[in-house]
Design goal:
Number of helices: 17
Shape: globular
Number of strands: 0
Radius of gyration: 20 Å
Strand content: under 5%
Order of helices and strands: HHHHHHHHHHHHHHHHH
Helix content: over 70%
């Protein structure tokens, strides 16, 4: 039913790159092909090679370089009057904005990308841009608004037999079920995503699905050893492809597993590692989640109660301002868990 996964963001002279190519390799080849295109004066090729460069920088956590690259790709596409390439550049910029926690900007850029993709007749960039809008809403916890869009995009991806997008949609829907307590449904969806990703040789999608399964196995079944094994398997793909963001979230989840198992010192070490990784790539949502896990671990290890209260109060304010509803609810639960709600609101 599903063919081999492909990476539509690798375009022009870079179409031979695999969805599983190391991002370091993608960046090196992308820059080389970009320079060739600039020398030849082919603006359409400059735009498309620049897109791969932007995405490699973004996924490696090099946000300043990624910001510069997607904007250059957009300018080249506009000069070449290539509407679809303009859409792809805006998609990259919107995805970067979401990664950096700039959610209003992300929505604006992704909506523009979807519109240009439709006008340019590129159904794939339209789908990716709508998916980006759906993911932005999901990350902010607005499940009612984006649940239907996730289901619509899943149906479209299944109809086209596009494995990578099917896996993305399944994982997004699974995450919403997990966050609302429907663990069995979430597990089934993550399991399906993992199977499709494995069959399509989509190592990135497979790694994220394994992370989701590890989370469910840990929180629902209390099986920390199996959860850690799943995360170890996922980490191999993250490292092989230089997936900095996915690796940081993997480490954060490993911290979650240790925390749930009462292994607080080990949890602290993993949260500290993830926090360093998120800060290096300017990923504020991941940084906040790692800070939350670290605060809880330190509290269990005897940290002063007033320090815990202050840390959680700061996180609550940060997440409230960012509009991250689900993460804000997690902080509220932590405040209740440690009995510091009163101190946090004084």
């Amino acid at each position: 039913m599903y063919g081999k996964a492909f990476a539509p963001e690798y375009q022009g002279a870079l179409t031979s790159l695999s969805v599983n190519s190391s991002l370091v390799d993608v960046l090196a080849e992308g820059i080389e092909r970009l320079r060739e295109a600039e020398r030849s004066g082919r603006l359409d090729e400059v735009a498309r090679c620049g897109l791969a460069v932007a995405e490699a920088h973004r996924r490696l956590g090099q946000v300043t370089d990624a910001d510069r690259a997607w904007k250059a790709s957009y300018r080249a596409a506009r000069a070449a009057r290539d509407t679809a390439a303009m859409a792809w550049a805006l998609w990259s910029g919107g995805t970067l904005a979401r990664q950096r926690g700039a959610f209003p900007l992300a929505r604006r850029l992704l909506a523009l990308a979807a519109d240009l993709g439709e006008r340019g007749g590129d159904v794939v960039v339209r789908g990716y841009s709508l998916a980006g809008l759906a993911e932005t809403g999901r990350i902010q916890g607005d499940y009612a608004a984006v649940g239907r869009l996730h289901e619509q995009l899943l149906a479209e991806a299944r109809r086209r037999g596009e494995a990578r997008h099917t896996v993305w949609a399944l994982e997004g829907i699974a995450q919403m079920h997990r966050n609302t307590g429907s663990y069995d449904r979430a597990y089934a969806l993550f399991e399906e995503a993992a199977a499709i990703a494995a069959g399509a040789e989509d190592r990135r999608g497979h790694a994220w699905a394994l992370r989701g399964l590890a989370d469910i196995v840990s929180v629902r079944d209390g099986d920390s050893e199996r959860a850690l094994a799943l995360l170890s398997e996922a980490e191999l793909s993250c490292r092989a492809m230089d997936l900095s963001g996915a690796l940081a979230y993997n480490h954060k989840m490993r911290g979650n597993v240790f925390y749930r198992a009462g292994r607080y010192a080990e949890a602290r070490e993993l949260y500290e590692l993830a926090l360093t990784e998120f800060r290096a790539m300017s990923e504020p949502r991941g940084e906040a989640l790692a800070r939350l896990g670290l605060a809880k671990s330190l509290a269990r290890l005897g940290r002063d109660r007033t320090e815990t209260a202050a840390e959680l109060a700061d996180l609550a304010g940060l997440l409230e301002r960012a509009g991250l509803r689900h993460a804000r609810e997690m902080v509220a639960r932590a405040q209740a868990e440690f009995g510091v709600v009163a101190e946090a609101v004084r």
